[in-house]
Amino acid sequence: MEQLVQTTLSAPEGDLSFFHLFWQAHIVVKIVMLGLVAASVWCWAIMVDKALLYTRTKRQMNRFETVFWSGQSLEELYGTLQNRTNHGMSAIFVAAMREWKRSHEGARPAIASLQQRIDRVMDVTIQREAERLESRLLVLASVGSAAPFIGLFGTVWGIMTAFQAIANAESTNLAVVAPGIAEALFATALGLLAAIPAVIAYNKFSSDVGKSIGRMEGFADEFSAILSRQIDQSL
């Protein structure tokens, strides 16, 4: 027992550092670690991008609602937005107004099924906005579900390496066992490090997307009612 303690204490302090564990790991475990680090970096890039996107989208919808319900005429608002790149509620508004304009062009306005066409155009626009907001969220979900198992694979491989080292050295000395066990646990830690933020971010962003789509659908219903009244008055 005293000999084991002395061996452990005499080991260099840097032997179990993260850098040392990586370089001493088996090539398979190295690939697992690099893959998990790359997945973690990719997820953080997506999280930052989506956080900025959803903040910007919420701000744009707030501004549009303020302008839309301020009493400004629909024609003036459409003239201001039609040549811009629009997203969210403004994209729904422009798509509906564009269909309204097209239906009133010419000597014979096509008003008979205008309400259905406007509703269809707004639904398609909402679907496109939902796809834009939801893009790459599947990456977060995939990393969140797969990373722990990939880390577990590295753990199993590291333990196998540790057992092989024990067998080759014909000793259960802690100095022989510790590196393999440490590298195995390091792979697990990297898997959790990639998975936990990804799962939390996916749940948060999915909730944000649902709220944004709900707001857009609510605006589409209100705007559809406004246009429906105007269509009835023109018949």
Describe what you observe in this structure:
The protein is mostly helical and 235 residues long. The chain is 83% helix and 0% strand. Helix 3 (27-68) runs parallel beside helix 8, helix 5 packs antiparallel against helix 6 and helix 6 runs antiparallel to helix 8 (174-234). The longest helix is centred in the C-terminal third of the chain and has 61 residues, at 174-234. The chain is rod-shaped, with a radius of gyration of 29 Å. The termini are far apart.
Provide the fold topology.
Elements lengths: L1 H9 L7 H7 L2 H42 L5 H8 L7 H15 L10 H21 L2 H33 L4 H61 L1
Summary, kept brief:
The protein is mainly α and 235 residues long.
What integer value in Å does the Rg equal?
Answer: 29 Å
Q: What's the mean pLDDT score?
A: 84
Largest sheet: none
The fraction of residues in strands falls at: under 5%
The computed structural class is mainly alpha
Distance between the termini: 98 Å
Q: How are helices and strands ordered from N to C? A: HHHHHHHH
Total helical segments: 8
State the oligomer.
single chain
Shape: rod-shaped
User: Which stretches are poorly predicted, pLDDT < 50 over at least 5 residues?
Assistant: 1-14
What is the β-strand count?
0
What percent of the residues sit in helical stretches (DSSP H or I)? over 70%
Descriptive terms for the model:
235 residues, mainly alpha, 0% strand, disordered N terminus
